[in-house]
User: Which sequence fits this backbone?
């Protein structure tokens, strides 16, 4: 079937009006300034978001000890782990070693530290520091010492018995275990006792031994800290 187009006539005009050509929407080219404005807006948004997130993370990386260590121990990088910490007071950061600090090579621990504890600067001293620390052997019933106690553990030792001084705390506090042979390597397997070697200040060792000698049927109980 053949369709014929009739000329469009405008009202009041005798002539025929031409039909306008159809227009198609075209995609903006790479020279279109609107495209570059959009790219700039996206870039600015990404950069601003990244800076905002970085500013919100106010944690710092500091060194912590991987395992218990006693006085006199020398630590290297293999004994440390990195922890991210947020300090309420920025001045507190100065008490510890951050990952950006160079660890001293000629210093050693002057007090015990426990696994996971941040490495405090106050725990390190010169080689001759802590010269008044002695090694004190104690023998404890195996049922009165935690099996987890090992070299490097920090413990409290309680003393009870007839003649022992009444006290609200331990006879030895925060003593560091420097040696703790297992049950299979000591006489403990036959006697039911376990020997521990503790690093304590000389004055504390003297006072402890004096009190132990004045106590009848003394019983020692070891409590592990941390």
Assistant:
């Amino acid at each position: 079937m053949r369709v014929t187009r009739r000329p469009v006539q405008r009202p009041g005009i005798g002539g025929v009006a031409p039909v306008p050509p159809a227009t198609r929407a075209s995609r903006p080219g790479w020279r279109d300034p609107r495209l570059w404005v959009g790219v700039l807006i996206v870039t600015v948004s990404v950069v601003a978001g990244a800076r905002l997130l970085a500013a919100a993370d106010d944690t710092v990386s500091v060194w912590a000890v991987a395992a218990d260590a006693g006085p006199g121990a020398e630590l290297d990088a293999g004994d440390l782990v990195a922890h991210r910490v947020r300090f309420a007071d920025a001045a507190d950061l100065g008490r510890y070693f951050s990952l950006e600090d160079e660890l001293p090579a000629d210093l050693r621990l002057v007090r015990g530290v426990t696994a996971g504890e941040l490495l405090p600067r106050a725990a390190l001293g010169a080689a001759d520091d802590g010269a008044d620390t002695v090694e004190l052997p104690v023998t404890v019933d195996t049922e009165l010492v935690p099996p987890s106690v090992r070299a490097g553990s920090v413990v409290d030792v309680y003393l009870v018995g007839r003649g022992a001084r009444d006290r609200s705390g331990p006879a030895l506090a925060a003593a560091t275990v420097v040696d703790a042979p297992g049950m299979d390597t000591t006489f403990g397997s036959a006697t039911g006792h376990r020997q521990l070697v503790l690093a304590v200040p000389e004055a504390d060792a003297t006072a402890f031994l004096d009190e132990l000698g004045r106590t009848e049927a003394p019983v020692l109980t070891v409590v592990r800290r941390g």
About this structure: Residues 133-224 form one domain. The helical segments are 33-56, 188-191, 202-213. The radius of gyration is 39 Å. The first strand starts at residue 8 and ends at 9.
